[in-house]
Amino acid sequence: MVLTEKHKELIERIGVFHEHKGMQPLVGRIIGLLLVHDEGEVSFDEIVEQLGVSKSAVSNALTFLQAKGRCVYSTRPGDRKRYFALKVSDWKEDFTKELENIAEIQKFIDEVLEVRTDKTPEFNCRMRDFSNFLDFFKKEIPALFERFKKQQA
Amino acid sequence: MVLTEKHKELIERIGVFHEHKGMQPLVGRIIGLLLVHDEGEVSFDEIVEQLGVSKSAVSNALTFLQAKGRCVYSTRPGDRKRYFALKVSDWKEDFTKELENIAEIQKFIDEVLEVRTDKTPEFNCRMRDFSNFLDFFKKEIPALFERFKKQQA
DNA sequence: CTGTTAGTTCTGCAAATACAGAACTAAAAA
DNA sequence: TTTTTAGTTCTGTATTTGCAGAACTAACAG
Q: How far apart are CA A137 and CA A130, in angstroms?
């Protein structure tokens, strides 16, 4: 597949977006490439060529993406190459994980509340409020997907 | 205020948590200190002493936190020191921002769908599904807070 | 057995990060 | 006016990051 300027520019922006989420630059670019690539599956070599980076960098980035469960590869009979693709299948799972990750702050809030004295009742009250909300939020996640399903039909 | 080992250890863990979110180490530690500190407000000097870091590092970190709107300082009559505190007041706003930030991926998903051919209908379909969900999700955020309010009462 | 393909692991380095320490600034105190 | 206080900005540096390139490995091909 030949990438147009538009493709390349979009890949870069998707890369930067993922960099901001803490991923290393190339990892974000690879996600971008796998997203815009027509065939869905992209060979190791093609990633190297399209992004103009070294094999070692691609190898490490793909190992990372696979470890994170964001990417898989398949093979074809009579072809030793690996074809990589994103696991868009379980976006619900991924999204849930991200939401739960945000809510992880609750664990700390609760620990903080345990060590705090009652010198600052308003502060403590707000924190407890926030903790209660996070509790509520986590429980609401499944319901969220259900409401979406209903609304779809 | 004298910090116990428990306090210090909790500050470190809160620091690491924020590092994973892309903040620089000291910024995370300062958030931790402001969270566990009894008085709620902590002077510049005390931050320097409690965390054992340089004034310059603290100055930069606090400038960053204030720019991000996560921290404010107040002053006291006849006292030139600045007392820093977290802005826990608007956790709803902060949380909303974080959720919207997650949903920002939708912008890219939609752009990706525009440049993709229909060679991979299933992939495209899943992406469209995800985009629709993100749409739904963003609209649901205010309702989420409302349901929490109701449940509280 | 030798060569080739496809990818991995190791080594090194250029650039970015995160901080220390010193010099500096602005305002209040003496 | 000089000094002190409280914090900022500048300069240098140790550490970490992100990648390139080379050496290596495993499997198949000739």
A: 10
| Strand extents, DSSP E, B5-148 | 42-43, 71-76, 79-86
Minimal CA separation from B56 to chain A, in Å: 25
Residues of chain A positioned with their CB less than 8 A from the CB of B99: 99, 102
- Which pLDDT belongs to residue A153? 84
pLDDT, tens digit, 9 for 90 and up, residues A63-81: 999 999 999 999 999 899 9
Would the Cβ of A52 be found within 7 angstroms of any atom in strand D?
A: yes
Given B61, B86, B111, the domain boundary residue is B86
B89 touches strand D (CB under 7 A): no
Q: How many CB atoms lie within 10 A of CB B142?
A: 10
User: A97 touching B, CB under 8 A?
Assistant: no
Q: In what helix (H) or strand (E) does residue A91 lie, and over which residues does it extend?
A: helix A91-103
Chain A residues with CB inside 8 Å of B120's CB?
Answer: 38-40
Domain identity same for A66 and A95? no
Q: How many domains does chain B have?
A: 2
Domain housing B132:
90-152
Residues of B in contact with A91 (CB under 8 A): 126, 129-130, 133
B53 CB below 7 A from strand C atoms = yes
Q: Find the closest chain A residue to B12 by CA distance.
A: A108
Mark yes or no for CB contact B36/A116 under 8 Å: yes
How many Cβ atoms sit within 10 Å of the Cβ of residue B11? 24
| Strand, coil or helix: A104 | coil
pLDDT, one tens digit per residue, over B78-136 is: 999 999 999 988 899 989 999 999 999 999 999 999 999 999 999 999 999 999 999 99
**Nearest C-alpha neighbor of A33 from the set A2, A69, A76:** A2
**CA–CA gap between residue B96 and residue A15 (Å, rounded):** 24
